[in-house]
């Protein structure tokens, strides 16, 4: 019965002109530019009039017939501004869904609901109503129940600034924000930047003071890593909270929230990266100070820290970028589509990235097993150098002539190579010289001792020195000098000095350097003194051929 009664009442209102009823009689005739023929035209015209503060047009879009005629003009202007304020912040109109036909929604010929706004524990419909306008032409206005609820809606979602600030600050909006909101955003951004900087300095100073009272060094790294990221995180939080006070429209508020959320994610990722870097340096310095001269342990730890740091950094970048992209609906839809085909895509990607994945796992395995470490002296691909950099996919070897040899990680896991400093950097170096059989070996040993205590004293570590006869041939014998040094570089330089000085020493000896000697023996033959037979032979060394020359026969 109630529904039928409302329908009958509405029909009576449509024929109101015949009974002496007129819509908003206290406002007079509407201006010619007021277009209320369709729901879409009414909404667009209302927003245009209220944003332009056109007091002549604003009230004509509201049902004000329930008010006394003398109050309709003033109350209409006030209620229109308040409704505009609420609608701008709580509704985002999709005009493609608002009827553009004079008859409105086919489901209800008298009303057209254009949205809902929270009010108390429920929702309040924002509705348009079709009534009889001038000369009996049907027009659309905001319904009586919507107009009666404007004050309640404004108290919950509005701001007293609307009636305090100068009217020009509420002029036609730029994009979807009014002038006072742009000014408020600029002022709040500046205030949030200043406040975040002050809060950061105060909190970090207090935290560092508390950390200085503890013996652990980890808390120092936490506060050191927070210099910078904490400021931007506070700025994001303050910016998001302050934007609520400006009562931004939903699209603008979502944009501010996305920017604040993105800035907070970047700040957190930055903090993680800095904390990992400072922690790795802290651990390395602590272990080096505790291990003292244990260079091998320090190198091994440094290699592990470098590889693990790169893994954590890569994971941080991937997670941060993923969280940033997931804020956007388009990316989320792409992600859902990819997940739907995860079976086939996973198989294809796994086969395509098999080499990359194995290389990545090889980098992790190398950091754990440590066949090479940063700073080790190695021979790889017949090149002698030092391990300069270890990544997850390749190793950079600094060759002795300052070239860089980039070696895939799999090479150190699949092929043999020489590591001269795997256990310790100390090395033995050898120098071989060829000397005559009559060389005084004891004198050479004494000369080696002299060289090591004079020219080579800065390079020799005092662990080993010896001269041995290691080989001989029909003409020479091989002397090998054995020396020791603290590392490969010093061993190479020491070998060069020993080689140079031993050669100079042998040059000064009468029987030092190897020579080729031959003896000539003249024997009488049957032809008498005039004829002779010359026999040339070496100095009795076994195994050499005897070359003879004599008169030709025949």
TrEMBL record:
For this UniProt record, the keywords arranged alphabetically read as follows: Membrane, Signal, Transmembrane, Transmembrane helix
Pfam families given in the database record: MS_channel_2nd
Q: Which domain of life is it from?
A: Bacteria
Name the SUPFAM superfamilies for this protein.
Sm-like ribonucleoproteins
Where does the record say this protein resides?
Answer: Membrane
The Mechanosensitive ion channel MscS domain covers 356-422
Write the signal peptide boundaries: 1-22
Main localization category:
membrane
* Record region (Disordered): 532-554
Q: Which InterPro entries match?
A: LSM_dom_sf, MscS_beta-dom_sf, MscS_channel_2nd
Name listed for the protein in its UniProt record: Mechanosensitive ion channel family protein
Q: Which organism is it from?
A: Archangium minus
Please spell out the taxonomic lineage of the organism that makes this protein: Bacteria, Pseudomonadati, Myxococcota, Myxococcia, Myxococcales
